[in-house]
Amino acid sequence: MDLETLSHETRTVVADIIERSAIQKGQVFVLGLSSSEVAGGVIGQNSNREVGRVIVKTMLDLLNEKGIYLAVQGCEHLNRALVIEREAAEQKHLELVNVLPSLHAGGSGQLAAFDFMKDPVEVEEVVGHAGIDIGDTSIGMHIKKVQVPLKPIQKELGGAHLTALASRPKLIGGSRARYTADPIRKY
After folding, report:
1. Which residues sit opposite 134 in a β-bridge?
2. Is 181 among the domain residues?
3. Is residue 175 included in any domain, yes or no?
4. Concatenated DSSP letters for 8-73?
5. How far is CA 165 from CA 39, 117, 129, 184, in A?
6. Is residue 186 part of a domain?
7. How many structural domains is the chain composed of?
8. What is the pLDDT along the chain (187 residues), one digit of tens a residue?
9. Where are the annotated coiled coils located (predicted)?
10. Of 119, 98, 120, the residue nearest 109 (C-alpha)
11. What is the C-alpha to C-alpha distance for residues 165 and 149, in angstroms, rounded to an integer?
């Protein structure tokens, strides 16, 4: 696997999702990652530390430029806990949990988050505004209601299937209500 190509493709896909999701500075972008799938293996069986490092570092560089927080979801062995910057956890009053990820419990993405974030902590849950799922890891539990599926501009990253979610406020009020324009671009 060519890691330079992986970095370039990650940046392209994530930049597109950021733009189309209308995520704002100070909000949370969720990453679900199966490095096993990216490397052409089976989810949960062939975690690849270098793949995780490339994807998370590339995403952090892009999100940090825009003031958006990254939350990296762990696998089911950590009950889908997430790594996020302590600053974000404190601002958003998130419940900290005490666990350190490993390659096969939390995964390569969480290990990379601990490598590249300034002050990473694990939290039980977040309410993200958008996110990308690399390898069908199911990030929906960490994206706020109402979720809006976005089709990434690429269908795969390496060998991993890609899906993405944005969110919008609930439409309430009924037939007499009026609404603001929906900023989510779904093309």
Report:
1. 33, 162
2. no
3. no
4. HHHHHHHHHHHHHHT--TT-EEEEEE-HHHHTTS-TTTS--HHHHHHHHHHHHHHHHHHTPEEEEE
5. 23, 23, 8, 10
6. no
7. 1
8. 799 999 999 999 999 999 999 999 999 999 999 999 998 888 878 899 999 999 999 999 999 999 999 999 998 788 899 999 999 999 999 999 999 999 988 899 999 999 999 999 999 999 999 999 999 999 999 999 999 999 999 999 999 999 999 999 888 888 888 888 888 866 5
9. none
10. 120
11. 5
Which domain does 9 fall in, by range? Answer: 3-40+47-167
Task: Look at residue 180 and tell me if it is in a domain.
Answer: no
The one-letter amino acid at 78: L
CA–CA distances in Å: residue 89 to residues 2, 12, 59, 119, 120: 34, 27, 19, 10, 9
Contact between residue 62 and residue 11 where contact means Cβ atoms under 8 Å apart: yes
